[in-house]
Amino acid sequence: MENTYLKQQYEKFEKLYPNEKEYLQSIHDVLNSIDDIIEFHPEYETFNVVERLLEPERVISFKVTWIDDEKNVRVNRGYRVQHSSLIGPYKGGLRFHPSVNQSVLKFLAFDQTLKNSLTNLPMGGGKGGSDFNPKGKSDFEIMTFCHAFMRELFHHLGEDVDVPAGDIGVGQREIGYLYGYYKKITNQVTSSMTGKDSLIGGSLVRREATGYGLAYFVEALLGKIKNTTFKDKKVIISGSGNVALHAALKVRELGGKVIAMSDSSGFIHDEEGLDIDMIKTIKQENRERIKRYLDHYENAQYKDESSNIWTLKADIALPCATQNELDETAAKHLVDNGIMLVGEGANMPTTSKGKAVFKKHDILFAPCKAANAGGVLVSGFEIAQSAQFNSWSFDTINEKLKAMMETIFNDIHQTAKKYDKDTDLQFGVNVYSFQKLVQAMLEQGIV
Ligand code: NDP
Ligand code: 2IT
């Protein structure tokens, strides 16, 4: 970063939030891109847009008290970061994972604000969650916790205020419990949460949207830049949750071969291609470890260390588990093994040094804010359908999703080209979304 104003701002945030390393990482990533265009925009400093955009509008933290199956009284921390309402109500998922803290949620909320601006729907950005660990909890405990969490969070929600959805550890089951309780205590049936089952007012394709959207984005990138497709490409996908599974299903449909997938304990590998339906049954329906795949396929291999998935040889890598899961060493392994493209399904899965390796070696890179925007896009469709008192068909939504992922690709690619950055989509996504938000900010004066 060269620009003095940007450097001062970054240093200010470093001093203010020295322990929030994920948040600092995500803002550094964006400021680095803005550094290349700020000379054309003196108004950024005049109106101090950087500090105004980086600082969340509101950070809410609360205590969640609940009772487990053994009648122990348990306490967890709950949060909602309402980052920006510049272009609409706060919108973004809830994460239940022991690693959740304010830094993680601030980075996620900041990135969500930029991501949501790509969708052309009126959605601001937010993120929330808890350090509650859903692993090993009974269904009753999950429901009890969701109710206790919502007992605090409901004060801050509303269809025109803040509309949460799912993220790690929060899927359709948890959204059902959260939404049911919200409805009970507010006596309102509104689109105050997305990701619901279609039976209770949710949208078709929301479950599939992030993974499918990632595959559509990568397919657009492959076609436009390399004149090729997923067909016959070997693909590694980390994670085996909502995003990873639906990415795998769509990659398979598009003719690619998924040779490895993981969970937080380890990864499975089969050069002949994995049975994605079996993984779905194991992980989604039975909520078991991915290792159980070996019970059904003796020829597959299982290794304990999930990060070693990146030592495999493949054409395409899709990190779909969590932040900073793909570091410099992993990136070097992928490059040495001839990787052609990396597409980020998770939020910030590649470390800054990992990204630098891919850039140095001209590896095609689909950055998360764009590549995983399909989930929140279909959340936006869910809000639209509720407002219309209507529901759209699977095919209609799927086609809209595909078309919008292609539009997002074009928008950020054009931005990169405009500034002679060729295929640097990391630059393209940061600059495109930042400029949009600054415009929205300046429209509204100093508020
Ligand atoms: P899920 O909870 O459904 O799945 C998460 C997967 O990642 C699981 O396989 C889990 O393994 C693995 N995982 C989680 N934490 C770690 C860790 N610390 N180390 C290794 N593996 C880990 O979550 P989603 O699929 O919804 O989310 C995955 C990523 O995609 C996240 O970064 C999320 O923010 C992002 N995302 C999600 C969207 C959505 O609509 N759901 C939208 C856009 C982005 P295990 O089973 O062992 O826990
Ligand atoms: O990171 C994300 O985009 C999500 N977890 C989905 C957010 C949403 O509101 O659907």
Q: Strands, helices and their partners?
A:
Elements (H helix, E strand, L loop, with lengths): L3 H13 L4 H14 L7 H5 L2 H6 L3 E10 L5 E12 L5 E7 L5 H16 L7 E6 L8 H15 L8 E4 L6 H15 L19 H21 L7 E5 L3 H12 L3 E6 L4 E3 L6 H10 L15 E3 L12 E4 L8 H9 L4 E3 L8 H9 L3 E3 L1 H4 L2 H15 L5 H25 L6 H19 L4
Parallel strand pairs: 3-4, 3-5, 6-7, 6-10, 10-11, 11-12
Antiparallel strand pairs: 1-2, 2-4, 7-8, 8-9
Helix pairs in contact: 1-2, 2-5, 2-16, 6-7, 8-9, 8-14, 8-15, 9-10, 11-12, 14-15, 15-16
The site of NADPH dihydro-nicotinamide-adenine-dinucleotide phosphate (NDP) has 25 residues, from helix 9.
The major pleated sheet works out as: 7 strands, mixed
Could you give the order of strands across the largest sheet? 9-8-7-6-10-11-12
Question: Which overall shape is indicated by the principal axes computed on the Cα atoms?
Answer: globular
DSSP, total strands: 12
Structural class: alpha/beta
Order of helices and strands: HHHHEEEHEHEHHEHEEHEEHEHEHHHH
Instruction: Estimate percent helicity.
Output: 40-55%
- Provide a count of the helices: 16
Average pLDDT across residues? 97
Report the portion of residues in β strands: 5-15%
Rg estimate, integer Å: 21 Å
Instruction: Indicate the low-confidence ranges by residue numbers.
Output: none
Q: Any ligands, ions or cofactors bound here, and which? A: NADPH dihydro-nicotinamide-adenine-dinucleotide phosphate, (2Z)-2-iminopentanedioic acid
User: How widely separated are the two ends?
Assistant: 28 Å
